[in-house]
Amino acid sequence: MGLFDRNYMRDSGFGYRRDDSGRNMLFTLIVINTAVFLFSIVFPAIAENLALSPEGIRQMHIYQLVTAGFLHFGFWHFAINMWGLYLFGGLVSPHVDGKRFLWLYLIGAVSGNLLFLLLNWNSDVQLLGASGAVFAVLAGAALFEPNRQFIMFPLPLPVRTRTLAICYIILEVMMLGRQDGVAHLAHLGGVLGGYLYLKILYGKSLPWDPFRSKARSAGEAPRRFRVTPGPTPDFSKGGPVGSKELDALLDKVSRHGINSLSEQELARLRQAREEMRGGKNQ
Fold it and tell me: By the 8 A CB rule, do 124 and 105 touch?
């Protein structure tokens, strides 16, 4: 297996990716949301008919379950949702192709809208916004990259993705019933829809699952792909870095991170990099 054939080299910042369609879909959805937002400013009457309402569904305007997930009430509503989509979508997109990313977004939007609709069937409220879809993408970020850290404003404290997702869910539950103009039910429905969709697709191969008794560490290969490691090479022998030695170093980085390497192992990894560069220049 070559250096760049490894999953953790393809999906890292080494400039090589086998499939960029997930990331392309992420930016496509941001562009679509932007276009719809501008359209709603120019044609507010038409946009109002695309928002979700119990009355609209009773009139068989089923499309509102989807179109409401692309509408926003004001600039800050739009900006915050797009920032969340970009932030969490950047963690999900390396793991899924464009079609699955689109389905994750749509399922999150529809499931969030449905949960809100079911519990507000007799009201005259209208619902719009991509929050349900964004919360589905947040769920995907936690499942695929549970240990990625964020700095939470205003506290300069690093928070893991899975911790962030759990905190958001708890906060949304606590805010249920408040008349603050925020559809907290749609957020919870989006998380639920996103989780179920990815659980059905990936099952036990997800790096983290809050309902699994023993969660697999992020970056660790699924059991069915795990390879039994051979004997640890002797790094003190010097000379060129062989393929087996390089494989052992990269496997250790994949399992435990770059900080797990000793100074001697780091030196051998740097040597291998220089030898590869020298080979490309010949």
Answer: no
